[in-house]
Amino acid sequence: MPTTAQPFAHLSAPNVSLYRDIMRVFARAKERFIVHLRPEDVAAELSRLSDEHLAQALDQLTGWSNLRADPDTSRVTSVEDFHRKRFLYQLTGEGHAAEQALTFYDEMIGRRGALQSVALEDIAEQLQALKVLASEPDPDPAKTHRLLLSLTERFSSLADNAQAFMSSLRRAIDFSDGNVDGFLAYKERLIDYINRFIADLANSGAQITVLITDLERLGHDRLLRLAAQREASDAVPDETEAAAAYANAEAAASDDWDNRWRGLRDWFVSTGTGHPSQSRLLRQAAVTAIKQLIDTVVLLNERRSGRSDRSADFRALARWFAEAPDEAAMHRLWRAAFGLTPARHLTVTAGTVAEWDEVDPPPSTPWQEAPPIRISPQLRKTGSYERRGQPNRIEDRSLARRMLRDQAEREAAETAAARRLLATEGPVLLSELGVLDARAFRLFLGLLGDALAARLPGDTEVKTTTADGSMEVRLSLVEGGAEVSVETADGGLTGPEHLIEITDLTA
Predict the structure, then answer these.
(1) Which of 71, 142, 183, 272 has its CB surrounded by the most CB atoms within 10 Å?
(2) Which run of H or of E encompasses 502?
(3) Which of 120, 184, 271, 255 lies closest to 456 in space, CA to CA?
(4) What dihedral do alpha carbons 299, 302, 304, 308 form, nearest 10°?
(5) Stretch 300-318: mean pLDDT
(6) pLDDT at site 321
(7) Cβ-contact 201, 283 below 8 angstroms
(8) Distance between CA atoms of 78 and 56, rounded to whole angstroms?
(9) Cβ contacts of residue 300 below 8 Å, gap of 6+?
(10) What Pfam families does the annotation carry (predicted)?
(11) By the 8 A CB rule, do 130 and 83 touch?
């Protein structure tokens, strides 16, 4: 038997599940006001155990001071029975406290919480009853104490459950790649539930605020003192022999009730713009949670429709890195994804520029077949190169900048013309679009791709806006329509017949 109790030692033992089951049997028996249990009583609850394993576990729990073993002499009928080891087991104070702590821990870890609209009604009714008592010249102390205790219990339950619910709601919103179908299935009910509570909190909260203000005007301190005096009487029965002890007990109880009332008041009554009430903060948090739920649903719909999602792309890239066979493959994947290869040449020599002008390679030329860039051997060896002599003259790049500006303006004008060409006065058939030039066709392909990407499986109509917000397209499938061809300067694009409506939002 150890000199000090170790009621939590069984949590780190190899057979922790067995010890926890035995302790639960004793805890449930204590709730039924059963003090002692025999090994056969425990075995009846845990039928999977052998007598030998059960005896060893009971002895071990007794050694940790979770249980106390008393000799069982009630069924001794012979000398042999007296010398045989028979024990009655019961929870020790340490074991009972440890079991209560573990039960409370399990409840708090798995607690989801709830927004209790009924608790708001109960609080309002109890405050109304206290208001009636405060209006009387001599309130009943017992009735006042009972109402205040009930009010405190109901308010504590409301506050704790609201806090637990908002914590669980944040975990539900931040579900990452959890059960998407389950999330989408319950989000509508969750939003309706929060909306109802927000409405109840706004209505009942205003009523409770008025009742608290009226009680303070009528003198709520008198009711709190009555409750404190009643509790002090229970703590010190004989006031004449222990006047100082009674005064201390009453002062402690008064401070306790003042603190409870202050918590109730701060929860429902705002003290100014800088100190909003907890109920108002809870309403704001609930509204924010609804917005976050809606944003999460929009994100999920975009993922399902094939829209680009950077977080999903990075997760897919991380999975590819994890599945790479070796580090060389990881490096190739890194270069392919980000292209952050070191640029060791800071300038282009005149010989390289002349070779480029002579060959004039098209943009589609592979790097291996393109004219190389000549760099200094010293740069290849040391990673740095400093040319001796006078620095190069500063080049005037105003002509190149003007050329780039003219090119950008020309491309913008061509794009605007293509938008005006594609814009329709209403829904038209794809077969009626006419011949499209190259730039209008590229813009049309982008619009068509955005519309098809936004259309969910089974939908026949979709409406979307381009990423830059310049155009809106509505696409509807024509049932029974034949294959049609959209003629362009480079050829024809064939596909099923659709009704399309294109709107230029910049016009």
Answers:
(1) 183
(2) strand 498-504
(3) 184
(4) -110
(5) 72
(6) 92
(7) yes
(8) 26
(9) 180, 183, 184
(10) DUF2397
(11) no
What local confidence, expressed as pLDDT, does residue 107 receive? 64
Task: Give the strand pairing for 498-504 and 471-477.
Answer: antiparallel
* pTM over the 0.85 mark: no
CB 418 within 8 A of CB 443: yes
CA max distance for the chain: 119
Q: How high does pLDDT run on average in the chain?
A: 77
Rounded (5°) CA angle 179-182-187 = 120
Instruction: Report H helices in 269-364.
Output: 278-304, 310-323, 327-338, 350-359
The token duo for 442 is 């590229």
First to last CA, the chain: 90
Task: Indicate the burial class of 357 (C-beta count within 10 angstroms; 0-12, 13-18, 19 or more).
Answer: exposed
E strands in 330-482: 428-429, 461-465, 471-477
Q: Are 70 and 90 in contact (CB under 8 A)?
A: yes
Nearest in space to 130 (alpha carbons), one of 139, 120, 138, 121:
139
Q: Give the C-alpha separation, 155 to 267, whole Å.
A: 9
Q: Which residues contact 242 (CB under 8 A, 6 or more apart)?
A: 236
Q: For residue 268, is it left (φ>0), alpha (ψ between -120 and 50) or beta?
A: alpha
Q: Residues 6 or more apart from 265 whose CB is under 8 A from it? A: 212, 216
Distance between CA atoms of 253 and 231, rounded to whole angstroms? Answer: 7
> Do the beta carbons of residue 420 and residue 487 sit within 8 Å?
no
List for the chain the helix, strand, coil content (%; round to 5).
Answer: 60, 10, 30
Question: CB within 8 A of 317, min separation 6: which ones?
Answer: 333, 337
What length does the chain have? Answer: 507
* Alpha carbon distance 453, 441 (integer Å): 18
The helix (run of H) or strand (run of E) holding residue 431 is: none
User: What digits encode the pLDDT tens for the residues 43-59?
Assistant: 888 876 677 788 888 88
The beta strands (E) that lie in 131-203 are given as: none
Of 38-42, 105-109, 268-272, 488-492, highest mean pLDDT: 38-42
Residue ranges of domains in the chain: 9-108, 118-291, 310-341, 343-384, 417-504
Confidence of residue 386 (pLDDT cuts 50, 70, 90): low
What mean pLDDT do residues 156-172 have?
A: 70
Long-range contacts of 205-212, Cβ-Cβ distance < 8 Å, separation of 24 or more: 205/120, 205/268, 205/277, 205/279, 207/124, 208/120, 208/123, 208/124, 208/127, 208/268, 209/268, 209/269, 209/277, 211/124, 211/127, 211/128, 211/131, 212/127, 212/264, 212/265, 212/268, 212/269
| Token couple for 74 | 């009630």
Domain 9-108 is in which class? mainly alpha
24: nearest Cα among 110, 112, 98: 98
Per-residue pLDDT at 291 exceeds 80? no
Predicted pLDDT of residue 345: 47
